[in-house]
Design brief:
The structure is a single chain. With about 180 residues, the protein is mainly beta. The protein has helices at about 35, 165-170, 175-180, and strands at about 1-5, 15, 20, 25, 50-55, 60-65, 75-80, 80-90, 100-105, 110-115, 120-125, 130-135, 145. Strand 1 (about 1-5) and strand 2 (about 15) form a beta hairpin. The longest helix has 7 residues, at about 175-180.
């Protein structure tokens, strides 16, 4: 059984799944299309699974792909803990330019569904973390964009001053420039 909550950004969903524990350990059904399809839009078809390993302080994002290569994602953490951030880039949305931040971890077993039209990134809060995400479209390098992680307009509170960043993420595009290109 799963519990689903819609967050303040319309279409972004938080799932909580049952965990069955006994003296041997635990079991959880992390994805069941029949159960999730009660909440996720019917046109969602996950076609690729990705896995990311990170060390403490690594910040990945904020990433998105421009149309027609946009991706919806279902994010979960199988080891460790992350701060997950989602930014609404849907022009005309009542929450355009707003973000949410949520803790996902192996312990809390929460999963986050992010529809297309959002930028996404995360910060590893534990010594190490493993993040799995299902995607509805393949990566397209030519449509891939990075929103600047510490953009002054967004004012995202990452709780860290000097995260470990890739060159691409360090050189992300400010929100005001991203808006012109979408």
């Amino acid at each position: 059984m799963i519990k689903c909550s819609e967050l303040k950004l319309k279409g972004v969903l938080l799932f909580e799944i049952d965990i069955f524990q006994d003296n041997r350990g635990s079991f959880s059904e992390v994805y069941n299309e029949l159960s999730f399809s009660k909440y996720i839009p019917q046109d969602i078809n996950f076609i690729q699974d990705n896995e990311s390993f990170s060390n403490y302080g690594v910040l990945r994002g904020l990433h998105f792909q421009k149309p027609p290569f946009q991706q919806s994602k279902l994010i979960r953490v199988s080891h460790g803990e992350i701060q997950d951030v989602v930014v609404d880039l849907r022009k005309g949305s009542s929450t355009f330019g707003q973000y949410i931040s949520i803790i996902l971890s192996k312990k809390n077993k929460k999963q986050l569904f992010i529809p297309k039209g959002f930028a996404h990134g995360f910060l590893c809060l534990s010594k190490k973390c493993s993040v799995y995400y299902k995607c509805t479209n393949y990566r397209n390098a030519n449509s891939e964009k990075t929103l600047l992680w510490n953009d002054k307009k967004l004012k995202i509170n990452w709780g860290i001053k000097k995260p470990i960043l890739s060159k691409k993420d360090r050189n992300g595009t400010p929100f005001k420039e991203i808006v012109k290109s979408i």
